[in-house]
Amino acid sequence: MASLYPGLAHLQTLNHFPMAQFTAAACPPFLDYDNRINLHCRELNVQISKRILDLAPHTVILSAFWLHYYRESDVDRLLGESVKFLRAAGVKQIVVIGPLPLWSPSLPRSIFNQYKQDHSYPPPRYMTRGLSGESAGIEARLQARTRDLGATYVSALAILCGDAGCLSRVGDSWEEIASFDTMHLTVPAAEFLIARIFETHKLGQ
């Protein structure tokens, strides 16, 4: 979620809405969750839940490395508990942003490998080299669960990907690469994604 924040911050400067970011590395938006990577995840989410009760936001956006948590946790149950809490806290709009494109070993490496093959610069706007199908594999499941819970589902893959693969860049400059590692978005890509989400979904209304 933190890699999406620059896109929200940019939009905030244009539309002047109140916003707060509550995220921590390796800590999904689940209340009943312990993490061997982040030993403070449960404690952090308890504190975040208290802040939500205090702030009474209209809209809460949830995002995570969903694929990782599907591998090790009961995401359907945990997400349901989070949505139940948010609804009880008076949140009017609960938004789940689906998985981002996953690159192996990373998007920069995939672009380099593509360049070694055909010396193309800039790289193809959409690429399949290095693109994992695992994110697409959980999309339908997460979308169905979100809708069952009465929350709003936003497909990042529908915005960032197409028949020719997923975006390797959102502009012609090397600074506008879409991801700086396996999946975290760069600032230009976050601005691109969030702008298109707000164009197609009435978030905050």
Account of the 3D structure:
- A hairpin with a 2-residue loop joins strand 5 and strand 6.
- The chain is globular.
- It has helices at residues 5-15, 41-55, 66-72, 75-88, 107-118, 134-148, 156-160, 187-200, and strands spanning 59-62, 93-97, 126-127, 152-154, 161-162, 165-167.
- Helix 1 (5-15) crosses helix 8 (187-200).
- It has a domain at 2-99 and 133-161 and 187-200.
- By secondary structure, the chain is mostly helical.
Q: How many individual helices?
A: 8
In percent terms, what proportion of residues is strand? 5-15%
Number of strands: 6
Distance between the termini: 21 Å
Rounded radius of gyration (Å): 17 Å
Order of H and E elements: HHEHHEHEHEHEEH
Strand order of the largest sheet: 1-2-4
Shape: globular
Helix content: 40-55%
Mean pLDDT: 94
Please identify the structural class as seen in this structure: mainly alpha
Name the poorly predicted regions.
Answer: none
Q: Describe the sheet with the most strands.
A: 3 strands, parallel
